[in-house]
Amino acid sequence: MSCKESAKKTEALVEEAPVVETEVVKETSDLKVYNFTEIEPLLHKTGDKIYVVNFWATWCAPCVKELPYFEKITEDYANKDVEVLLVSLDFSKQYETKLIPFIKTHQLKSEVVALNDPDSNAWIPKVDPEWSGSIPATIIYKGNTRKFFEKSFTYEELQTEINQFLN
């Protein structure tokens, strides 16, 4: 099953779930968990940094395959004002059993947060109006310049896109 098919099944399940409003950041171990209202400011930071925000999940094979490239960006661009944020779309009931162990096993250095907001029909178009909800998905932005990608990256492709923001 592709991530897009998984996303559609997830969307169907989410539509049946009750909407839970929360304005408080919950922490599970060292994992910060946000609803979309809380995460939205992280998608619109200002300043001279380049921000790379990747939406992913541990159950998405293409997402997991490209994670080392984001980690390499975090390392290679550490002194070039590039900040990587990995936004997990894993299911909340799997934070302790799947997501947190995954983060520890793979020793992820980039900041990882979890997005727990069942109203995906409301927040997906706020991330990007063209986003189908399929993952992996990535936003690269600096100031008012923003690019959205609904695809998997190679390291070279990711580097090329980020370098366009550096020049």
Can you describe what's shown?
With 167 residues, the protein is of the alpha/beta class. It has a single domain, classed as Glutaredoxin (3-Layer(aba) Sandwich). Helix content is 39%, strand content 22%. The chain has helices spanning 3-16, 36-39, 61-76, 95-105, 120-127, 155-166; strands at residues 26-28, 31-34, 50-56, 82-88, 111-115, 137-142, 145-149. A hairpin with a 2-residue loop joins strand 6 and strand 7 (145-149). The termini are far apart. Mean pLDDT is 86; it is low at 6-28.
Short key terms for the protein model shown above:
single chain; 167 residues; alpha/beta; Glutaredoxin; seven-stranded mixed β-sheet; 6 helices
Layout of helices and strands:
Blueprint: H1 3-16, E1 26-28, E2 31-34, H2 36-39, E3 50-56, H3 61-76, E4 82-88, H4 95-105, E5 111-115, H5 120-127, E6 137-142, E7 145-149, H6 155-166
Helix-strand string: HEEHEHEHEHEEH
Name of the CATH first level: Alpha Beta
Distance between the termini: 39 Å
Uncertain ranges: 6-28
For the biggest β-sheet, the strand order reads: 1-2-5-4-3-6-7
- The secondary structure category is alpha/beta
The CATH architecture can be named as 3-Layer(aba) Sandwich
- Average pLDDT across residues? 86
Helix content: 25-40%
Main pleated sheet: 7 strands, mixed
Count of helical segments?
A: 6
The total domain count is 1
- How big is the Rg? 15 Å
Beta-strand share of residues = 15-25%
| CATH homologous superfamily identity | Glutaredoxin
What's the CATH topology name?
A: Glutaredoxin
Shape, principal axes of CA atoms: globular
Report the count of strand segments. Answer: 7
